[in-house]
Amino acid sequence: KLVMLDDELRNEVEESGDDCDRYICSEVDLTGLSSSDILRSISSIGDCKHWGVALTVPALIVPWIINRDQGVDGGEQFDDSSTSDSTGEGSCSSINFNALETVVIGITPNPPTVLEVQTFENFTAQNFVGVPIVVETTIIYATRAIITWFVDGNVVAHDSKSYTPAVEDIGKRVSILITPVRPEHNGEGCQEAYEFVSAVQPLPLMPIMKLREGWGRVDAVERVGGNNLRVLTYNILADLYAGRQLDQQLMYSHCDMKDLMRSRRMPMIIAEILSYKADIICLQEVDASIHDSLISPVLRTKGYQGFYSNKVTSQQEGCSMFWSTSVFEMARAEDMQEFPLRSLLTKDAPLDESEYFNAKSTVRDLVELERWESMNGIRQLLEAHDEVRRVYSESVGQILQVVRLSPKQSTSTEQSCSSKPDSIVVANTHLFYHPMAGHIRLLQAFAICHKLDQIRRMDPESPAPLLLCGDFNSDPLSGAVRLLTNRSVLPQENDCWKHLNIYTWECGDSDYMMDHGFIGNYDPDDTLSCCIEEDFVDAHCDEASTMESMSSDDSIDDISPPAVVLPSCFPTLVSGCLNLPSFTNYATDFVETLDYVFASEPSVQEPFGFRPKGEAPMPSEELVKQYVAMPNKAMPSDHVALVCDFEWVKKVQ
User: Fold this and answer.
1) How far apart are CA 487 and CA 445, in angstroms?
2) Across 200-204, 265-269, 358-362, least confident range
3) Which residues are CB-contacts of 154 (< 8 A; sequence separation ≥ 6)?
4) Is residue 313 very low, low, confident or very high in pLDDT (cuts 50, 70, 90)?
5) What is the Cα–Cα distance from 541 to 556, expressed in whole angstroms?
6) Which residue blocks in 16-162 are alpha helix, DSSP H?
7) Closest Cα to residue 600, out of 489, 444, 468?
8) With contact defined as beta carbons under 8 Å apart, do 183 and 112 qualify?
9) Which of 84, 101, 100 is nearest to 92 (CA)?
10) Under the phi-then-psi rule, with left for phi > 0, alpha for psi from -120 to 50, and beta for the rest, what region is 343?
11) If you ran DSSP here, which 8-state letter would residue 478 be given?
């Protein structure tokens, strides 16, 4: 029977089984009942904090039950001498096997319980000095979980979700004790303990971090009160791609497989990201599982807010954005948006710019705002060119992340007339990759600008300044980058449109890419010295041999490209790099600048904007060639993180 115990007498029930009926104020006979019947019977009794189980058993074993329930190891034990006669043979004459007795054992209903423990790589990741370890829990019947951290059995942190190993922890093992609690229960007897597999290790040598050590050190508190803003964009190389094969060989065959393991690579990337102390962090090629289990938990403990957006494909990889809550106010859910790029040029995408304005808009506003007339030419191209439409609108899965942020304003009198606007718009993206698809990336860049202009004009009286970050898969002379920096790409600019009538989706096949020299130019059988002395070239540029190898059947009927021009209503963008990097991506057969941070400049019409102050030092080719290419044991991604400092600017009218 399941019984409800009188509160005042329940302690006595736990100490004795005698006359147990007097402790029972209600009971439910469970005999023959289904689980649903039991629940209905219990609910009919009413609220109760203390329950017990009434066991009706042969009197013979009652002392054993009582001792067992109370954890008695010694003391008075049940004397079974009466069961044997003087001859040592068993005798049943003195035992009444029909005698029954009821014992009530107190139970704890719904004890605090840990349902799940989440940490990166399930306690098997490598733990490095200076890289936070974060443990999160899912609990039930508990209000919170207290996590106590131990290093070789010594308490180093209490009631914390994270612990950052120190130098003195090297060679030692980290373990945790999780105690789920609630107001009336301290969690005793409900704890769970775990130990991390790897001992704490020194952080591997990371020469790019060493190169940037001490660069532009500005405390976050100073940035809140001052006019400085630090922005980071970083393609971290998704684990999904790190181990992929081409022609039966690893794509990164120059790198030892153990150095590509995410249990090692990702903590190194976290260490690098944290070292820059950026106010805005934009990441590309982020595995969904790594965002959830490592990147987001760690950055949340460091005072960042952010979100993840997966590509519109079956691959669990996308972009992540984060911002410091010491520099910006907490963003609302409606301020965080994501847009598949394929949807931004469809007929359903808005074209009429009147949507930018509300009833307060004047005729002058409408006159000064040029129409995005290039959108008409682009949509005509998509209608006329089946292959461009198939690739752009049906095949590519790139995403655009956008967030509207409100900077924290200084409370000082001197800066009451702040150079910071009420809000800014920050965007993060990763454009299409194929070397022959420069025209697709140009269309993507135009679509991004069109969408961002809509978002930043939500308040038509004060359009928000803009930051645009990402891996554009485009060199500085490409159509996409020229559009953003020079504001136009015309039909006669053949370099951008040269593959318009040649490229098809099937060109993305690995065999095609290798046959035409876009990838796979690295010979792993070459000696290391040959690799180091190799003359790396841009795969985009080896056009003569590529075009010769293509048959005339590969081309599509010629269709003329449109003029792509940004209207004057869109702000002028400036690069966050005062000096153009020699490269941001360094593979064995491809070296190029692909990553950018753009910011809007102030103008007479829009007084708020940004002024670039400088970028973090970039590695030289000689430094990378020591390891053949990227990634490698000291550089965890095939891209270099781009870190730029800006100054908030307000143009005097």
Assistant:
1) 11
2) 358-362
3) none
4) confident
5) 22
6) 35-45, 62-69
7) 468
8) no
9) 84
10) alpha
11) S
DSSP, res 50:
-
Distance CA 60, CA 90 (A): 15
Q: Which amino acid is at 442?
A: L
Residue 400 tokens, joined: 């655009």
The CA–CA distances, whole Å, from 596 to 277, 505, 636 equal 18, 26, 19
**Concatenated DSSP letters of 415-476:** TSS-SS-S-EEEEEEE----TT-HHHHHHHHHHHHHHHHHHHTSSTTSPPPEEEEEE----T
Question: Quick one: average pLDDT of 251-276?
Answer: 94
* Beta-ladder partners of 280: 231, 323
Amino acid at 533: E
This prediction has a pTM of: 0.80
The answer to whether the beta carbons of residues 429 and 448 sit under 8 Å apart is yes
Tokens 């718009």 appear where? 425
- Encoded tokens for 101: 């007795």
Q: What HEC string does 376-423 produce? A: HHHHHHHHHCHHHHHHHHHHCCCEEEEEEECECCCCCCCCCCCCCCCC
Q: What are phi and psi of 140, to 5 degrees?
A: -140, 145
Alpha-carbon 293 to chain mean position = 8
pLDDT of residue 253: 86
Separation between Cα atoms, residue 649 and residue 227, nearest integer Å: 8
Question: In angstroms, what CA-CA distances link 372 with 377, 450, 569?
Answer: 10, 8, 9
The tens digit of pLDDT for each residue in 496-535 reads 899 999 988 877 555 544 444 444 444 444 433 333 333 3
Chain position carrying tokens 């007097």: 22
